[in-house]
Amino acid sequence: MTHKLLLPLALATLLLAGCPAPAQKTDASPAASSTATPAASASPAASREISKQTLPVICGCAVDSIGQCGEFAVIDGKHVEITDHGLGAMPFCGKGKELKATVSGTLVEGKLKATAIEVLK
Fold it and tell me: Comparing C-alpha atoms, which of 59, 67, 66 is closest to residue 87?
């Protein structure tokens, strides 16, 4: 009978005393110095110009990882949302996965702000 009382008593003691805080992980590598900025290490260039590049374009609803309508271009193997495209509502929706467009604009923070876009037939 005393064995049945020891476990609840031990758990209650731990709860009342509080659990010790986990040890802080330290990284002595030079990359972890306080002079490094997250923005500089995350992306060497804050923006990138795209000039008259022919890119695959697709509606987000046709991409499993996106799953909702929106205009996307494939740049460097990644789906990048196109903003300011001026093509009206859902220009790529239902057009299939082989659609391409000639695109110019600026790639900023993972989005492509289009300055010119022409959907190729």
Answer: 59
Structure tokens given for 107: 């790639």
The C-alpha atoms of residue 92 and residue 37 are separated, in whole angstroms, by: 38
Contact indicator for 73, 80 with CB cutoff of 8 Å: yes
Q: What share of the chain is helix, strand, coil (3-state, %, to 5)?
A: 20, 35, 40
Q: What does pTM read for this prediction?
A: 0.61
Q: Dihedral of CA 77/68/49/37: which sign?
A: negative
- Can you read off the two tokens belonging to residue 62? 């046709």
Please write the tens of the pLDDT for every residue from 15-49.
444 444 444 444 444 444 444 333 333 444 568 99
Token digits of residue 85: 């495209």
Six token digits for residue 14: 């731990």
C-alpha 110: how far from chain center: 7
Which pLDDT belongs to residue 97?
84
2 phi and psi angles, rounded to 5 deg: -70, -25
